Amino acid sequence: METTPRVSIDPFVPLRHRWRDVTAGSGFDATAEPYRTRLARLGAKAAGHRDAMAPSDASLWPDLAFPSLGATPLRLRTMARAYALPGTGLTGDANLAAAVANGLDHYRRRVYAEGADEVGNWWYWRIGTPRNLLDAALLIGPHLTERRSVALREAVDHFLPECHLDDYSGTSTGANRVDLCVVTLLRAILGADPAKAALAVSALSPVFPYVSEGDGFYRDGSFVQHTTIPYQGTYGASLLSGLATLFAVLRGSPWEITDPNRQVVLDSVERTFAPFVHDGLCMDLVSGRAIGRRPYGDHDRGRAIASAILLLGETASAAERSRWQGMVKGWALRDTHRPMLDAAEHDDLGFHARLAAILDDDAVPAADEPAGHRLLAMSARAAHRGRGWCAGLSMASHRIGHYEHGNGENLRGWHTGSGMLYWWADGHGDQYSDSFWATVDPYRLPGTTVSTRRLADGAGEAWGDTCPPGRWVGGATDGVYATVGQHLNGLESTLKAFKSWFFLDDAVVCLGAGITGEDGVPVETIVDNRRTGAPLTVDEGKGWAHLEGHGGYVLPCGTRLRTLREERAGRDPAPREGRTGGLDPVTRSYVTLWFDHGVDPVSAGYVYLLLPGASPAETRARAADPGWARVLANTARQQGVQVPSLGITAVNFWNEGAAGDLAASAPCAVLVREGGDGTATLTVSDPRRDLDELTVTWRRPVAEVLRGHPLLAGAATGAGLTLTFGRLAGRGGGSNTVTVRLA
């Protein structure tokens, strides 16, 4: 009996095709616009690179002197993409592929050679350069001979030996580990090496589980890289993109990623990344040293996150994919300052195709900005969305650095962790995008309390090793409102302060107390510093100020508010291919409002309300109603407010004690919200993460506890309420809510 011989299929063949489709772009009609024009431009660019090649011992192109670790491999990849993609005019061109192959081997022999020493940043040698070289090699396929392929693989093995994936530590964690695994997979595909492919997948496993310290994902939604820096932007976006790519490329292959902890990554889309994307931009407070790299960098990072999310959706559940598509569609429609679809046309045709498809699909509803509050205590960050506005808060603690600098970047970001309060109302999507970091006074960042002591560029240790000793940093939130606090210790300063923010529907109540310093210079609290030329109106007699088109400020009558309108000059980094960039001069207008606490203050304080988007009439009305928000305490022991119209009482207890109707046996944060249905919720947290027991009392008649919390050890009701909690220290500063029925 004759049998049909079984054909052995090389599993790496589909991986090569899938890599090209996922990373170079697919899912579009190359003859339709804007793809036709964009692909033609790619072809012209590649032809220009090919024609300008002049290999020598010092360079592959005369304008790119070796080692040129970034630009030379990137040009080779650009040429390879023009060969692999349709519609470039050079699709399948053997001469172009031969030029890429020659260029790869030339660069490998003179720079990226087995046995060569790493010069400069390790990242280029183990991640950036090999990824582009291997990518280009895969795209030109058989035009790279086996001899040249072996030599390239051996060079990669020299700079990225398998031992770098043995330990999950140092520079092999988080986003770096994902990038190393991507390079390892490319090396495996190029050499059809099953063992390398298996290593690339198994080495990802430490990335997925939740962590309680160091780099990675935290249960509260935090993502940290470099041990002390919240990093959803850049590193986080890179991690999400890398994992989405690996999930998509390896799906259905013998090396498909099936680790059960991969769900942590899927959950991070809405828990970790989305809270810090506002109308398409990724807030700078989760972007470390990258904040000043280029104008509109926050929009670029938001677009990178959106791209990763849509790609990740292709290997997620139908329900997750549907939610994410609606979310990204909403971002794209609301980002009018850097339209996401237009920008995608220039940097990612695959993303453009995915985004265009959902924008054209009426069955995908655009999701609105989610209302409410997200407090990520483990990374000292908060995001709040009220009616038509959004805010982000950046703090520093004993585990989160004041700021990060490194590689010559962000040298004056000293005070970004000193309580910087970012906020956007309608139409303000470029407030921190348009050359803000190049021109803003770095000693007067909005919301911060700072010593004006002059600091050196790059003050403090590099790479985020700038953690102050303060442990009480965090707060309590019920998901709608929040009380957040920071025990502030200045960077290279004697400054100490207690700062609290109470996030409400249309306002942020801001308190400061115990402001003390001995630096011999003035200490200031920056109420705001807006990049605008809008008119400012101040009525100190009636306790308010208003910035036209932006919002209002309410302060106690008689408070001395300092103001300044100025034009500030600076220089924007202007990256150019093949070099780190020039410096483009720019000038921007600013309006600054601040409190001057004087030289070496002792226990100074402040109170003000921020009203994002408020009109002059709304600002005046709020100022004329001092009982709207009652300050219960504003000392170095407690800070608290009561807002009767919202049923809110909130206190940050820096020490045990009482404020208003609330008392606590130890440092904690307490948020009470009375509903209109005869119930109330009490939300409690342990920001210091050191309490074995906590007792909170509320002088309010309570009939019964309707819903407790696993850590609620005891409750007494009656004329007052007493709640006793067990070990809160293990909750990572998270909020714990109890619901009661009022008597």
UniProtKB/TrEMBL annotation:
Domain Polysaccharide lyase 8 N-terminal alpha-helical positions: 19-329
Domain Polysaccharide lyase family 8 central, residue spans: 377-615
Domain Polysaccharide lyase family 8 C-terminal: start-end pairs: 630-694
Keyword check for Repeat, yes or no: no
Q: Name one GO molecular function term.
A: lyase activity
Q: Does the keyword Signal apply?
A: yes
Task: Please name the InterPro entries in this protein's record.
Answer: Chondroitin_lyas, Gal_mutarotase_sf_dom, GH-type_carb-bd, Lyase_8, Lyase_8-like_C, Lyase_8_alpha_N, Lyase_8_C, Lyase_8_central_dom
Listed A to Z, the keywords are: Lyase, Signal
Instruction: Return the Pfam families for the record.
Output: Lyase_8, Lyase_8_C, Lyase_8_N
PANTHER family recorded: HYALURONATE LYASE
Q: Which family does it belong to?
A: Belongs to the polysaccharide lyase 8 family.
Q: What is this protein called?
A: Polysaccharide lyase 8 family protein
Species source reads: Streptosporangium oxazolinicum
